[in-house]
Design goal:
The protein is of the alpha/beta class and about 350 residues long. It has helices spanning about 40-50, 140-165, 185-195, 210-215, 245-255, 290-300, 305-320, 330-345; strands at about 5-10, 10-20, 30-40, 65, 70-80, 90-95, 100-105, 105-110, 110-115, 130, 175, 200-205, 220-225, 235-240, 260-265, 285, 325-330, 350-355. The two termini are about 15 Å apart. Bound molecules: NADP nicotinamide-adenine-dinucleotide phosphate (NAP).
Length: about 350
């Protein structure tokens, strides 16, 4: 069977299986892509935990009761019934955890295309774009792997920092980050330092990750979840990447009126998420990158947000060389092991996982 799907049970995302199916017969205008290398981090686990609530299972429909976790990575064309797209062309974008994906390209340009598959039409536009990879790009090279791992995360970092700056940091002088060791939080701290330098940035993390967060030098101070009083007495805003109900309750109790605003960005502590994203306390709002991109497209024009984010990435990327190591996982067993490691929160924060079916 030529196509392999790595599926997770929608009611228990620790349960996985693989399924095989035949190549589909391509319809008019359709293209078959074969997945190469892709990144995996807590972000992909959040796609799974919010699969029903935020529609992530709808991108790549699977058999009843099972879901395909979306990943970001590179793929090449193996069959095309679409003018302008030839076998061998390579695209970076949003793929199912499968060896192959059929797309129906629209708006084909020298830069890429948009998947016009009917079942994706109502889902956020940022996930539908596939970027053509230049011919001289090194397949499986460091730059491509960094792109697979970081692009969705760092653009969120840039967007979240931009959102906070746009709102004058809600008149706070201190910004506290939960899951400060996550890549998206680290990137946000980096961007905030650059665009709103006067803010004091306090990273909140597990005791085991305090030293790591300090070593990156992106935060002014790093505090462990079990030492909240070390946050200090000044009013602050909270950027929440963890979604841990008990941590959020404890912060609210500790800070009272000094907690000026909570901005929910992520939910890395998915097993401890006792609060619903849709039933948030007063003063809490959700930051969702696709929505912010739509706003910035209106403010700045259609391409400017991405261009500015990419320019910021060029400054950020070299700073990760001192602390980040990429780890490769190949084959179904490698994918399963990496998925279970990241799901269980047992992955080290200084490691970036790059996977391939092989
Ligand atoms: N809103 C948006 O548009 C948007 C876009 C992109 C990403 N995000 C979100 O940002 C969050 C961070 O994603 P990432 O890919 O940057 O994360 P990551 O680098 O993989 O984060 C790793 C860190 O997350 C915490 N963690 C991960 N799994 C855990 C578990 N099972 N139990 C407890 N802690 C766990 C630990 O941090 P600590 O010890 O420091 O807690 C760990 O060091 C995700 O929830 C993601 O969905 C949101």
């Amino acid at each position: 069977m030529p196509i392999t799907d790595f599926l997770v049970a929608r009611d228990d995302i620790a349960r996985t299986k693989t399924a095989a199916r035949e190549f589909p017969v391509l319809g008019d205008g359709e293209v078959l892509l074969e997945l190469e290398r892709f990144g995996l981090s807590a972000n992909n686990i959040t796609y799974a935990t919010l699969g029903d609530a935020m529609g992530y299972w709808r991108f790549f429909p699977a058999e009843e009761g099972w879901g395909s976790v979306p990943v970001w990575g590179h793929a090449h064309v193996v069959g095309s019934h679409c003018a302008g797209i030839e076998p061998g062309m390579r695209y970076f974008g949003y793929y199912p955890l499968s060896t192959h994906l059929v797309v129906k390209p629209e708006r084909v340009t020298p830069n890429g295309f948009v998947d016009g598959a009917a079942h994706r039409a109502e889902l956020p536009a940022v996930y539908q774009r596939y970027m053509l990879v230049p011919e001289d790009s090194e397949v499986g090279g460091n730059a491509e792997d960094q792109q697979s791992l970081w692009r969705p995360l760092f653009l969120t970092s840039f967007g979240a920092a931009d959102f906070i700056e746009e709102n004058g940091a809600f008149e706070a002088g201190v910004v506290v980050f939960t899951s400060a060791s996550s890549k998206t939080a680290l990137g946000t701290a980096f961007c905030l330092n650059r665009i709103a330098g006067a803010l004091e940035l306090v990273g909140l993390t597990s005791a085991a990750n305090v030293e790591f967060c300090e070593s990156t030098d992106y935060y002014d101070r790093v505090v462990s979840y079990d030492d909240l009083s070390a946050i200090g007495e000044k009013p602050f805003i909270l950027i929440d990447f963890a979604g841990n109900g008990a941590v959020l309750d404890a912060i609210e109790e500790f800070a009272g009126d000094r907690l000026l605003r909570t901005i929910i960005v992520g939910g890395t502590h998915w097993e401890d998420r006792e609060r619903s994203l849709t039933a948030m306390s007063a003063g809490t709002e959700l930051f969702f990158l696709p929505t912010w991109i739509v706003k910035r497209s209106e403010d700045w024009g259609p391409t400017s947000f991405m261009e500015r984010g990419e320019a910021e990435w060029e400054v950020f990327a070299p700073t990760t060389e001192t602390w980040l190591t990429l780890e490769e996982h190949t084959g179904l067993e490698g994918i399963e092991n990496a998925y279970q490691l990241v799901l269980a929160g047992e992955s080290r924060p200084d490691v970036g996982h790059i996977l391939e079916f092989g």
